[in-house]
Each structure stands twice: as structure tokens, then as C-alpha cells.
Amino acid sequence: MTAAGEGSAADGSVEADPAEATDRAAARRRIWWPAALAAALALALGVPALVAGGTSASGSSSLSAPADDSPEAGFARDMSTHHQQAVDLSFIIRDRTSDEPTRTLAFDIINTQANQRGMMMGWLDQWGLTQHSPAKPMTWMAMGGHGHGADYQAHDGSLMPGMATNTQLAKLRSLNGRDAEVFYLQLMLEHHKGGVEMAQGYVDMARNEVEKRLAQSMVAGQTSEIGLITDMLKDRGAAPGVPAS
Questions:
Q1: Least confident segment among 31-35, 61-65, 164-168
Q2: How far, in Å, are 62, 73, 114, 184 from residue 57 at the CA level?
Q3: Is the pTM of this model over 0.90?
């Protein structure tokens, strides 16, 4: 029996191609699974994780507050800033294209990274630490011997690996349609690569198991999206690298 809304030969409409419907469903699953992963992570971490440093269900102290110059505090601050730009980029593309796969990817990034950013900022507040520090971004990575991240030279608003410059943000705002989609995907590919580098850097030196699990989920989720974004660029006949400004 034909489902309502699909049409049939009797009413003159064209029935949906089962193969095309399967391809679309598979694409949606690839785009949406990182958001499902983030939701599952939040449930797995539970209330004690959201109030890190508080008391667990058993009554014992779940986490101790880290020092202001610790990798825990540095990662939470820097990744919050990194995530905020991913959210900003995704809001820009949402208004520059009507392409469903691109808008769906953007919504997923907004949802996932805004949620993760809120968790990290909440931890800093619970630890009694400020949201920002006068220390140079990525200083915490030097503690674990991650020279690339620690030696990163900020320029034109790009404070950390993978972050877009102010010039690139302005360019994205000036584009529409396919041109905007391609440039967004190119920027987000580099953004995710930088985010994975930072998250893995924290995983390698983590002393806070809850924050480590969050960082591990970032590595897994963004690595998956790197593959998806690479395929989306290929579908559009575009190279993965960001063109020189």
C-alpha cells in the first residue's frame, strides 16, 4: 500500500524512487549521528558531571577543582572559544543557502558544539574559575609537549588551530548559494581538524576523567564529520583546502 503523501499511479503523481529514498535516509543518518552521540554523552555524564567538583550520588566528592593554570581549565576555556566560532560559522551559512544537507550539517554543529560549550563553561563556573584568562591561548598544550598547538601564532582573529580569520568570516558573509556552501565546508573542515588536534591534546594529558570523556567524544564526532564534509566537497567538485585570501 502506498503511504499517504507519496502519490500513486492512480492519481497521476510519480511514486518515490525507493533507491533515492534509501540514499537520502542514509545521508541523513550520517549527518545526524554526532548530535545523537552528544545527547547520549550528556545523559551518560549525568548531573554530577555538569556540576564537576560537586558530590556524586554516593555522597563522595566526584571531582576536585583544578588550578587556574591547569590543562583542565585551559582546555575548557580554549575549546569554548573554538566551539563558539564553529557555531557562528554555522549560523552564517544557515542564512546563505537553501541546500538541505548543508543546513542540516550546520544545525548539527550548532546543536552539538553549543551544548558542549555550555558544559565546559559550567565546569569553569563550578570550579570557581573565570571564563577567560590573560594567558596566551594554547599555553596548556605545551604542558603535554604538543608543540604545534602551543606554538600557534594567532592572526587576524584566528586564535587557535583551524579557526577562520576575520577576513574569511567576512568573505563567507558575502557569498550565497553553492559558493557559500563550498567556502563554509572548506572552513569547517579546517576548523574540525584543529578541534580534533586540541581535543586529542587534552586527552593525552587529562587528569579529569569526565572532561577527558567529553574530549574523546569531540575527537570521535568531529573525525566522523571530517569524512562527511570531505564527501560533500567532493560532491560539489570542490577541493578541500581553503583558498588563499
A1: 31-35
A2: 9, 25, 27, 44
A3: no
